[in-house]
Amino acid sequence: MPAITVPSGFTRDGLPVGLQIAGPWRGEAQGLRAAAAFTAGQPWAPTPPAATD
User: Which pTM does this prediction carry?
Assistant: First the structure.
């Protein structure tokens, strides 16, 4: 079963959170399309969280 993990945001403390997308057997292309669509729709993607001490 193919799977891919994509960034999906940050916690209140600025820690990264990921989303794992799993596809059916031999469904690599489906998983990659889903990951690309999810990533393209994220308004925060180009902006990393603020650095903290």
Answer: 0.71
